[in-house]
Structures are given as structure tokens and as C-alpha cells.
TrEMBL record:
InterPro entries, sorted: CalX-like_sf, Calx_beta, CBM11, Cellulose_Degrad_GH3, Galactose-bd-like_sf, GH, Glyco_hydro_3_C, Glyco_hydro_3_C_sf
Keyword terms, alphabetized: Calcium, Glycosidase, Hydrolase, Repeat, Signal
Organism from which the protein derives: Streptomyces bungoensis
An annotated Gene Ontology molecular function: beta-glucosidase activity
EC number: 3.2.1.21
Protein's name in the database: beta-glucosidase
Length: 1004
């Protein structure tokens, strides 16, 4: 949901007409106008100062106008509007972020006139407090009900506003409604029925209450102690602007309630803490609660410390002292994991088991009280869901805060926190961002894939996160798919060869390394067939291919889409995520069925035939796409084999519904026990029961030179040289080079989607080096003109860096606002530079771009993919510090009408075939047909001897010979056997690979 922004400038306030004549108490400050709706504030769009509308889709924003009304409560005009909202919608008076915030702290509250319709609808009213600007502030909310007719003044004391826990995009500032830095107000209008409204004269009123400027809080919500220990609850006074309190503040406390027994488990504590008048902000008092030793084994017990506050705002929740669970077998780290799991499972209630099967979004649980209330098993950060500030320290602190909440549950089962770290720790600003998987596939280097996984794991775990929703093992069969860059390539054999990344993430296949502070639990996704969806088959919004239908024979399913998951299971991958897509197996009579409902695939193929022992996690809200009511959706997915449900904002409904379905006998207790056992097993293997909190010793290495060196090498190895007429590349540093194009100096474009935010963004949003800067750092003599508008005379060569802007998932589907064509600006830059000088064109993109109509005028063409933050890696191959060695992981089409086109197709005639990739700084063997025959014989010998390295080197030499002869004369006769040879190479059939290359040579 987009942020609602807020308020009116100081200059404008000074220019407003005299204040309302409404009477106010003699000791109250005069009302301060905020909005009179006389035209002094324009209708505008962020970030301008003005009133703007917003909504969930194009139809949800209300229509607004200023109307002359003879009955206007103030002035001559009122704000009127109409609405018909299906999702959410409303309007905001936004105070421009470039202006100073406003101080509302002298007032009691905010009020306005509302013309009632007596419809009983609730209208949400929101204000924004603190932070650097209106987009980095806290949201505070309340509501009023339209249950009257005619004009009525709505007065809302600031004490009525509550910190908004369901949506805090920046994670909050200090959770104190300070009122000294305010950014305005917003109204969320009712959804579900048409309506209209009128309002007038928004103003601040009354004299402030000290409880708005002073608050009492505790340093934690939960205080776990070992039996016999003493908990120390620190109570802190906080004031707005760090001003001393003018009146005394008292805190009366008592220990009562909870699951612990006073006198037996702990010594009762009660008393009064006093903060005298003049006490400065930050003053601390301490409450001590002594617990007793207990020789018998016991679950955790809670001791609420109830606080009654006078003169300040009380804490939002009652802190709890918790006597840790002790003496129970599942807590014994010396026992085998299976015994620990069995013991813990035997003690859990159905509701506790349901909690373990539930994953919520961190933004939905606010400060985390629901973690304990619902016994949640997992939290995640969706793309772009980050703490503020977005630093390693803030991540660790946030996750530790959530983990602390689990201490208040009976068995203190730790959370497992997950993120989509799909090319490095991509949600974290300053992390090392690797090339996306399509580039790693282009490297053809399994050792490199391992190293990128290891760097990612180390950076992710150092921020307190033990679980990564990666790697994506889809076999991308159509480049129009918006997720195609998440795939290692179109050939299942290539995808399988890159699954060394799993060991980079997890360590050894038996899971013994998972408890290390530099390893994370990996996720093989998306099971199964998400890369094979047919264009036009999606039913999700405006998507064209993502989340569509994959129609295959059972043999095609096995050979193309299931094979990578078999490899992942063999490598010990800890979790698997089903796909949003549907699977239609020819001849099985089921038609297209959503993967989250396919028990034959999840229970049958994955857990049964393959023997997968980890747990299955759903995709984001995926069960909502299943047919039937919510209970049916839950029952279908769980019975199909989904063990944990990613239900970001509906976690309460899921847990309750799951328990109800079990009680009704529609989901068996045995099925639930299987799911929870799988989840607990991974938590034990990760060492979370012994070490639930973040181990940040590796945080200093995040974004370090050593880690960036891995990303730089990956960027270099991912570059695929498609054409190199006259040996233009590598460039010489003495050459005068003209650089142009939209992606030459844009870190956001170069990193792509899933970078800092879900969709990514153009521009600079993290630390890294653009391709242009990399060229400069390499010592190149470079002149830059993004649009090629600068004069082009006098240059030795041009480098034009063009391509795509960031996108993710179905948002990036071709036909959904995207195409495979270069932008008009990029085409113009290519035309101008390549007409004026020898030129190299670099295509920065998640998929091939159609360049055939310009290929003749381009001297060198490079598929740069999405190289990540280390543009120096691209410069390394441009200037010859490293050779070009990359090979196409997908077929490069001649036209969109040719799609889908993949290695092994009966008809196969792409612009450049799968596996194509010219080299530089590399000796190409001499010889022709006779040499290839000799190489075929040698390759066959290596194959029989199991000499993989020798076999691969022989095939590489044969490939170089063929590429030299084929040059720029690509025909179907060359392309088809050439591509098939690369597939054969990856499957270890070296002799047959060279035989195919002989065919390509003969056709060249």
C-alpha cells in the first residue's frame, strides 16, 4: 500500500485569513488553521505541497473539488468528493518534503467539520510524525464513524491516535507521538459502496496534555531469565525534544497473572516509581523480579509486570518476565535431532502446531506481540521490507526483537526468518550484489556459482537471517517471462550444473554446516514448471506469462522441469517453494491445476519419489489463488503437502482455519505432525534453539573488498561476446572512447529487479560501481554523453550501453508494459555512435533484446545481462584485464514471433544459438574438419575414462574452431547442432558434443 503523506507550509499558515471565531478556554492557545479549503492549497501530486488522492488501483482514488457552499462552516468553500472504492483509497494533504516540518505539540488535538450522511461507515484519519520527511516518518491513526446528519465538528485529541502497527514502511522512529515534526493528515475513505462527503476547516485546537509530550517505556517487552535468576525491568522516561517534565510522573507496578505461580516460581514485586518534576528525558528506574529455582523440568512461565502511569503515556503493552523452559529433552543439544523433534512435538497443542506452520510479514506484526500471541513459526521480509535505517545493525536488532518475543511462549520455539536474497543480500543497502542468475548461467562456472552463494549466505546470516528464498531453479523457456533473469538458463542441464550454489548457501549436503554463522537454509523454487508457462496463459492481473499454465507431457515434465529439483534434493536443499503457476500434464485428465494444490507433485514426486526431507513453504499469499472458500484453500494446500504457509497479512485467519479443519477431521493430525516435524528439524539443524539471536561477527565483511571481488569476477565471467568484427574488443587504454547509452552510468539498471526494493529502480540506491565508472577506474580515456548528444568527432571507438530498466515477476512480462525492443533513446544512441565510429554495444538486460535490424552496423555486441554492483567486472573484459569467456545461457532470438525458441527444438534458427560466446585473449586452435575428428576421438576417450576436465577442455577447443569459421554467418544448419553440443557437454557426453560441432562446422 502506498504511503499517505501530509501537511501545509509555514508561509501558507501566515497567509491564511484570521483564525476561526470558535471560543476556546482562556488558557488554551489559539486554534491554528491547517486547511480552510478556500483554494489556498492546490490539488497536486507528491512531493509538491498540496492535496492529492491515492488508491489501490486506477478506480480507487476519490474525485475531489472545492465547492461554494452557503452553509460552509468556515469561509465560502468546502472540500467535497465522491468515491467508489473496491480496495483502498483516500486523500492526503501533503506537506512538501523540502519544507520544515510543523510543531503541533502546543495543542490538544486536531478537528474539522464533516457533513454527516448517517451511513454508519468508519473513516480512518491518519497523521505523520517525526523522521527526516513525510516519507520517513511514523504513521499514527484513529477513526470516526459517520452516524449523524448534517455538519458536525469532529474533534480528535492526539491521545486517541495509535501507532499504526499494520503498515510502517520505514519501521518507525521512536514510537513516541512527539508532535514537534508533523507532516500533515490523511483520510482513508470506506470501501465497498459508493459514497460522497464534504468537509471543512481543519485546525489544531486546545492545550496540550503532558502525557502527549512524555511517555514511559520499558527497554524490552520480554525479559527471559533462567530459573533462579533475577529479571531487571528498566523503566525509562522519554519526552519530546528531550525536555524535562513539568509535572511529576509516577509508575505503580505489580506482578500478577501469567502462567507462573507467585511464591512458588517467583517472589511477588510491587511498588511505585517516581520521576519528579524536572526529571530529564532518559531518566531510568529499575524493577527487579526474583525467580526461584525449580529442580523439575518445566515449560517456560510468564510473569506480567503491570504498570499504572500517571502524568505520562503508559507503555503500549505490559512487559513480561519469563522463566525459561528447562530440563526438557528437546532442549538437550546432545540428543539426535529426530529425538528432540519427537519430544517437542509430543508436547505441543494443535494451536501451537498451527503457529509453526504460519509465516507472517514483519510489517504485519508491528512490534511483534503477535509472534507470541499466535505462536508464529516464521516471519519474512518481502521485497523492500526493511528496517530504518537499512543497515546490518538495524536488521539484526529488528530480528532479535522479534526473536525475543518467542521467549514468551511455552516452549520458546525460535522463529525462522526468511528473505529473498536472490543475487546477494539484495534488500540490504551496501550489500554485495551479484549478477542475476542468468548471468551466472552465462559464466558456465559451477565454482563461481558456489562462491556467489557463499558470499550471499555470509552476508545474510550476519544480519540475523538464517533462511534464504533462493535459488530459483526454473528452466526459462520463454524470454518474454518477467522472471527469466532469475533462471540460470533454458537448459535443465545448465541449471543442474549451477546448483553448486546450494552448497555455497548451506554447506555440506547433510546439513551439518547449517548452524555456522556464515550459512543459511536454501530454498529451491519454484516447484515445478514456472519457467514453462505459455504466453497469454496468465490470469493474474495484467500479467501475460508469469503465474500462467505450463502444458507438458509427463516426459517433458521430467526431463526439463523436475530434473533440477532432483539435483537440489540430492544436494540436501532444506526447503522447497511451489510455483504460482498451474501445471497441465497431457493425458492425466486433470487439466490445469495450481501447483499449490498438486499433491501428486508435492507429496508424490517431491516428498515421495525424490525423498525430499525438508519442508515446503508456500509463495506469497499463493493459497488465495486456489479455488473455493478460505477453508477449502487451506485444506487443499496443506493436504497437497505444503508445510508452512506464507500468509503475510492473514496469518491470524490461517492459523485459526487450519486448527478448525483439523478438529473437523478434514486435515489429519498426522499430516500436521509431519509438517511441523519437518519445520522443527530445520530449526534444530540451524542451531536456532541454542543460538536464536543474530551472530553479527561477520557483519564487517558485508560489502567488503573480498566479497566484491567475487561479484566483480562474476560480472566479468557473465559477459557474453556475441560479435567482434575486426577484433574491436578488447579496447586499448590509449584509445579515446566515446561512451553513451541509458545504462552506462546507472547502478539501478545494472542491478535490475529485486534490488533494495521488489521491483528495483533506476538510479543510485546502493553502493557500487557503474560500468562507466569501471571503465574510468580501469584507466580508460573516456568521454560520456548519455544520449550521444555530444560531438562524436575524433574518437577511436564508441561503447554504447543500452538495455532495460528494472522489473520483477509478472510486472516485467512482455506485453505488460514491456517489450524486447530497445527504447527509442537507446536506438538513437546506437545509430548515432555506430555511424560515427567503430562501436561496441553492451546490452544490460534480464533477457535478450532484439537487435537484428542494427546488427550489421554494430562492430561488437556484448550480452552484459544484469551484472550487479561491480561494474569494474565489465570493464575488466572490455579492456582485456580478463578474457571474454561467457556463453549464452538462452537462445538469442531473431524476432519476438520466433519465441519460444530453445535448444533441442525441431526447428531452431535464432540470431545466436544457446552456448554461443566468442573469446578474447584466448588461443583458438588451428585446423578444420580433420582436427575436429581427432578431437572427437579424444573426447570419447576422456568420456569413457571419466576425465571430465579433459573432456570439457576438448569440447571447448572444438567450439572455438566452429565459432571462428561460422563468424557472422549464422544459419539454422550451424545453430542447431552448435546449441545441442553445449547441452551434450553439460551432460558429460563429450564425444557426441564434438560430433555435433562437426556438423555445425560443415554447415558453416
Amino acid at each position: 500500500m502506498p504511503r499517505t503523506a501530509l501537511l501545509v507550509s509555514g508561509a501558507l499558515l501566515a497567509a491564511l485569513l484570521p483564525l476561526s471565531a470558535a471560543a476556546h478556554a482562556a488558557d488554551d492557545p489559539a486554534p491554528t488553521p491547517v486547511d480552510r479549503f478556500e483554494g489556498e492549497v492546490p490539488f497536486a501530486a507528491q512531493p509538491a505541497d498540496g492535496i492529492f488522492t491515492w488508491g489501490g488501483d486506477a478506480d480507487d482514488p476519490p474525485s475531489l473539488r472545492l465547492a461554494d457552499r452557503s452553509d460552509a462552516p468556515e469561509g465560502a468553500k468546502v472540500l467535497t468528493g465522491s468515491y467508489d472504492i473496491s480496495g483502498y483509497g483516500g486523500f492526503t494533504h501533503d506537506f512538501a518534503a523540502a519544507e520544515p516540518a510543523h510543531d503541533w505539540s502546543a495543542h490538544q488535538g486536531i478537528r474539522f467539520w464533516w457533513e454527516g450522511r448517517n451511513n454508519g461507515r468508519k473513516i480512518a484519519f491518519e497523521i505523520k510524525d517525526g523522521g527526516a520527511n513525510g516519507e520517513a516518518s511514523e504513521l499514527w491513526t484513529t477513526s470516526f464513524t459517520d452516524d449523524f446528519t448534517g455538519w458536525k465538528r469532529i474533534e480528535i485529541p492526539f491521545t486517541d491516535f495509535e501507532y499504526r502497527t499494520d503498515y510502517q514502511p520505514v519501521g518507525g522512529i521512536d514510537h513516541v507521538l512527539g508532535l514537534t515534526r508533523m507532516w500533515g493528515y490523511a483520510l482513508t475513505l470506506p470501501a465497498g459502496a459508493k459514497g460522497d462527503f464534504a468537509m471543512d476547516d481543519v485546525e489544531l485546537y486546545g492545550r496540550a496534555d503532558q502525557s502527549l509530550r512524555a511517555a514511559v517505556g520499558t527497554d524490552a517487552a520480554v525479559y527471559p531469565v533462567r530459573q533462579g535468576g533475577t529479571a531487571k525491568v528498566k523503566v525509562t522516561l522519554a519526552t519530546t525534544g528531550d525536555k524535562p517534565v513539568e509535572e511529576p510522573v509516577t509508575v505503580t507496578y505489580t506482578t500478577a497473572g501469567g502462567t507462573a505461580t507467585a511464591g512458588r516460581d517467583y517472589t511477588p514485586a510491587s511498588g511505585t516509581l517516581t520521576f519528579p518534576a524536572g526529571s530529564p528525558s532518559g531518566t531510568v528506574r529499575t524493577i527487579e523480579v526474583a525467580t526461584h529455582r525449580d529442580k523439575s523440568a518445566a515449560a517456560a512461565k510468564t510473569i506480567p509486570v503491570k504498570l499504572a502511569v500517571t502524568g505520562a503515556k503508559a507503555p503500549a503493552e505490559t512487559p513480561q518476565v519469563v522463566i525459561d523452559a528447562h530440563g526438557l529433552p528437546y532442549l538437550d543439544a546432545k540428543l539426535p535431532v529426530r529425538k528432540r523433534v519427537a519430544d517437542l512435538l509430543s508436547r505441543m497443542s494443535l494451536e501451537e502446531k498451527a503457529g509453526q506452520m504460519t509465516q507472517a510479514e514483519r510489517g504485519a506484526v508491528g512490534e511483534g506481540g503477535d509472534v507470541a500471541a499466535y505462536g508464529l513459526g516464521s516471519l519474512l521480509s518481502g521485497g523492500g521490507s526493511t528496517p530504518t535505517p537499512n543497515t546490518p545493525e538495524a536488521w539484526a536488532k529488528m530480528i532479535d526483537g522479534f526473536q525475543l518475543r518467542t521467549r514468551a511462549t511455552r516452549f520458546q520455539v525460535p522463529l525462522i526468518y526468511g528473505v529473498d536474497a536472490v543475487h546477494g543480500h539484495n534488500n540490504l543497502a551496501g550489500a554485495t550484489i551479484m549478477p542475476h542468475n542468468v548471468g551466472i548461467g552465462a559464466s558456465r562456472d559451477p565454482r563461481l556459482a558456489y562462491r556467489t552463494g557463499a558470499v550471499t549466505a555470509a552476508e545474510v546470516r550476519a544480519t540475523g537471517i538464517p533462511w534464504d528464498f533462493a535459488p530459483c531453479l526454473c528452466v526459462s523457456r520463454d524470454e518474454r517471462w518477467g522472471r527469466s533473469y532469475e533462471s540460470f538458463g533454458e537448459d535443465p542441464a545448465l541449471v543442474q550444473s549451477m546448483e553448486t550454489v546450494i552448497q555455497g548457501l548451506q554447506g555440506r549436503a547433510d546439513g551439518r554446516d547449517l548452524s555456522r554463522n556464515d550459512k543459511v537454509l536454501a530454498t529451491a523454487k519454484h516447484f515445478v514448471g514456472d519457467g514453462g508457462t505459455a504466453y497469454g496463459s496468465s490470469t493474474t492481473g495484467t500479467y501475460t506469462i508469469d503465474q500462467g499454465v505450463t502444458t507438458v507431457t509427463r516426459q517433458q515434465l521430467q526431463d526439463i522441469h523436475l530434473a533440477p529439483f532432483e539435483t537440489a534434493v540430492e544436494r540436501g536443499v532444506g526447503t522447497v517453494m511451489p510455483s504460482y503457476s498451474s501445471l497441465d500434464i497431457t493425458g492425466d485428465g486433470k487439466g490445469a491445476v495450481k501447483m499449490h494444490a498438486r499433491g501428486d507433485m508435492i507429496n508424490g514426486e517431491l516428498k515421495g519419489r525424490m525423498g525430499f526431507g525438508g519442508f515446503v513453504i508456500s509463495d506469497w499469499n499463493a493459497i488465495d489463488q486456489l479455488p473455493g472458500d478460505y477453508a477449502t484453500q487451506v485444506r487443499t494446500a496443506v493436504n497437497a503437502g505444503v508445510d508452512m504457509m506464507m500468509v503475510p497479512y492473514s496469518y491470524r485467519d490461517f492459523g485459526r482455519t487450519l486448527a478448525d479443519e483439523v478438529k473437523a477431521g478434514r486435515i489429519s493430525g498426522k499430516r500436521v505432525d509431519d509438517a511441523v516435524s519437518r519445520i522443527l528439524t530445520q530449526k534444530f539443524r540451524l542451531g536456532l534453539f541454542e543460538h536464536p539471536y543474530a551472530d553479527t561477527r561477520g557483519a564487517a565483511a558485508i560489502g567488503s573488498p573480498a566479497h566484491r571481488a567475487v561479484a566483480r569476477r562474476a560480472a566479468a565471467e557473465s559477459q557474453v561476446l556475441l560479435k567482434n568484427s575486426g577484433g574491436l574488443l578488447p579496447l586499448r587504454k590509449s584509445e579515446k572512447v566515446y561512451v553513451a547509452g541509458s545504462d552506462a552510468d546507472d547502478l539501478g539498471n545494472q542491478t535490475g529487479g529485486w534490488t533494495i526494493t521488489w521491483q528495483g529502480a533506476s538510479g543510485t540506491h546502493t553502493k557500487g560501481t557503474t560500468i562507466l565508472q569501471g571503465m574510468r577506474d580501469a584507466g580508460g580515456n573516456v568521454t560520456y554523453s548519455k544520449d550521444a548528444s555530444a560531438p562524436t568527432d575524433g574518437y577511436d571507438a564508441g561503447v554504447v550501453v543500452v538495455g532495460e530498466t528494472p522489473y520483477a515477476e509478472g510486472v516485467g512480462d512482455v506485453g505488460n508494459g514491456h517489450s524486447l525492443q530497445l527504447s527509442a533513446a537507446d536506438r538513437a544512441a546506437v545509430d548515432k555512435v555506430c555511424a560515427a565510429m567503430k562501436c561496441a554495444v553492451l546490452v544490460v538486460s534480464g533477457r535478450p533484446q532484439l537487435v537484428g535490424d542494427r546488427l550489421a552496423g554494430i562492430d561488437a555486441l556484448v550480452a552484459s545481462w544484469l551484472p550487479g554492483t561491480e561494474g569494474e567486472g565489465v570493464a575488466d573484459v572490455l579492456y582485456g584485464s580478463r578474457p571474454f569467456t561467457g556463453q549464452l545461457p538462452v537462445s538469442w532470438p531473431r524476432s519476438e514471433s520466433q519465441l519460444p525458441v530453445n535448444v533441442g527444438d525441431a526447428a531452431y534458427d535464432p540470431q545466436f544459438p544457446y552456448g554461443w560466446g566468442l573469446t578474447t585473449l584466448t588461443h583458438v586452435p588451428k585446423g578444420g574438419a580433420a582436427t575436429l575428428r581427432a578431437l572427437r576421438l579424444a573426447a570419447a576417450v576422456a568420456e569413457r575414462a571419466g576425465a571430465g576436465r579433459t573432456g570439457r577442455e576438448i569440447v571447448r577447443e572444438a567450439r572455438l574452431i566452429v565459432q571462428r569459421k561460422a563468424g557472422e554467418r549464422m544459419t539454422e544448419g550451424v545453430a542447431k547442432p552448435f546449441a545441442e553440443a553445449d547441452h551434450l557437454l553439460l551432460t558429460g557426453r563429450y564425444g557426441e558434443a564434438v560430433r555435433k560441432l562437426e556438423q555445425a562446422y560443415g554447415a558453416a
